[in-house]
Amino acid sequence: MDHNKKKAYLINAIAIVALYLVFFVLIQTKTMNNYFVGIAIMTCIMIIMAMSLNIVAGFLGEMALGHAGFMAIGAYSSASFSMALIDGGLSLPPIVTLVLAMIVGGIVAGIFGFLIGTPTLRLRGDYLGIVTIGFSEIIRIFFINFGPTGGAAGLKGITRLVNFNNVYWITIIVAFLIFTLGRSKQGRAIISIREDEIASEAAGIPTTRYKVLAFSLAAFFAGVGGSLYAHYQSFLEPSKFGFMFSIEMFVIVVLGGLGSLTGSIISAIVLTVLPEMLRSFSEYRLLVYSLVLIIMMIFRPQGIFGRSEFSLTAFIESLIQRKNVKNSIGGGEAS
């Protein structure tokens, strides 16, 4: 690892810890009440969902509009697992129960991602989008009619295991894993398929295998996000995981920039916090929300960062460089 990478990792780690400490102090001093803490937790969950969708929509370049279906599978399977553990009298620390439930939710969603992705990834563009919408609606209707998970009335009695402390660090870990995937051999192979599938196949890359891998990994992390959602809300309602929720996640990814994880993070923060900030203007909330998206698409159609990533190290170095230039100009004028 070269010096610049070590420096970048150190700066990012300091920034992550500093941000956590700021939130920790605000929560402990009651400066942030439960309402704002809830917004922060939901923002972290939406960041995970947006980054997971970016694996398919950004890295692979395919239109997937059924991400809410994988989230629902992860939410219901993990909630059922944790309820079975707790009802069975198995006494485990809450964080251990949450981690086990997340793993179960992620694996079950990933298996469905593999089963759905294997036949459907032969399609492209709008056709793939239509198939994923159909899959998501099948999942939603299944849970509406599935008695063991409460049917249309929803699944109640889920133990709340999620708080800001654990959801923050889980989000950081997921972001690190997905970022590492994008820089790995497998990630570069997936991105090459997005750029030119025919050339990738001619170069010896097994395109079908990597497309299914991307789809399965996206479903896995969506399942993790669903598990966090279930164990924060303590109640699951099938109608939450409808078509419009998938569209919301897709809008976050497009607004941040297809292929940009930092874009997805910032976009998820903006599009989760903005509707809450406008809640007092309930009559105009959706209007303002829509106008922001339309203006963004007109003036910045590639999204906030496009396919680039925001670098905190480069940002700090540019600020230092500007300061040095100003000082040198000021010193020259003084002389």
How would you describe the overall organization of this protein?
- This protein is an all-alpha fold and 335 residues long.
- The protein has helices at 3-28, 34-60, 67-87, 94-120, 125-145, 164-183, 185-195, 197-202, 207-233, 243-256, 261-277, 285-299, 312-334.
- Helix 2 runs antiparallel to helix 9 (207-233), helix 2 (34-60) crosses helix 10 and helix 7 crosses helix 9.
- It is globular.
Draw up the topology in text:
Layout: H1 3-28, H2 34-60, H3 67-87, H4 94-120, H5 125-145, H6 164-183, H7 185-195, H8 197-202, H9 207-233, H10 243-256, H11 261-277, H12 285-299, H13 312-334
Helix pairs in contact: 2-6, 2-9, 2-10, 2-11, 3-4, 3-5, 3-9, 4-9, 6-7, 7-9, 10-11
Task: Write down the CATH topology.
Answer: ABC transporter involved in vitamin B12 uptake, BtuC
Note the total helix count.
Answer: 13
Tell me the Rg in angstroms.
Answer: 21 Å
Low-confidence spans:
none
Q: For this structure, what is the CATH class?
A: Mainly Alpha
Helix content: over 70%
Strands, total number: 0
- The proportion of strand residues reads under 5%
Distance between the termini: 44 Å
Number of domains: 1
Following the backbone from N to C, one meets helices and strands in this order, namely HHHHHHHHHHHHH
Shape: globular
Largest sheet: none
CATH architecture: Orthogonal Bundle
Structural class, by secondary structure, is mainly alpha
Pfam families: BPD_transp_2 (PF02653)
GO molecular function: branched-chain amino acid transmembrane transporter activity
GO cellular component, one term: plasma membrane
Transmembrane segments: 9-29, 35-57, 64-86, 92-115, 127-147, 167-184, 212-230, 250-274, 286-305
